Amino acid sequence: MGRRSSYPMEFRNDAVALYRAAAGRRTYAAVAADAGVTGETLRSWVRQADEQAGRTGGHGGAMVESRDEELARLRAELGRLGKAEKEWELEREILRRAAQYFAKEMRA
Predict the structure, then answer these.
(1) I need a labelling partner for 17 at 20 to 30 A (CA). Which of 8, 24, 50, 74 fits?
(2) Mean pLDDT in runs of 10 for the chain (108 residues)?
(3) Residue 34's closest CA among 8, 16, 49, 48?
(4) Are 19 and 39 in contact (CB under 8 A)?
(5) How large is the angle between the packed helices 9-22 and 28-35, nearest 10 degrees?
(6) Eight-state DSSP code of residue 23
(7) Rounded-to-integer distance, Cα 20 and Cα 60, Å
(8) Is-above-0.70 flag for pTM?
(9) How many C-beta neighbours within 10 Å does residue 46 have?
(10) Do residues 6 and 20 both lie within one domain?
(11) Are 48 and 28 found together in one domain?
């Protein structure tokens, strides 16, 4: 068994999340340098997190599911906003025509 880490679990989880957010755009070493640890340390933390997720049934699956639900909710909201925008355009057009009509009436 290895020695106990001097880094708090929250810090390690944040470093792993930072690496995963980079999603192949940055290397272990680059992300590790930002976090102030070595590349190999970060690599072992990512490996441990992957093993733990596999052992506990994979919290990653729950994250993907909640992300998919959020995406569906946002798409539905976008659809509603698109319909509302069309209604607002129609209202603006009606008001523009009414303003033109009354402007002609005032001139005459």
Answers:
(1) 74
(2) 76 89 85 91 92 67 72 85 87 94 87
(3) 16
(4) no
(5) 140
(6) T
(7) 12
(8) no
(9) 18
(10) yes
(11) yes
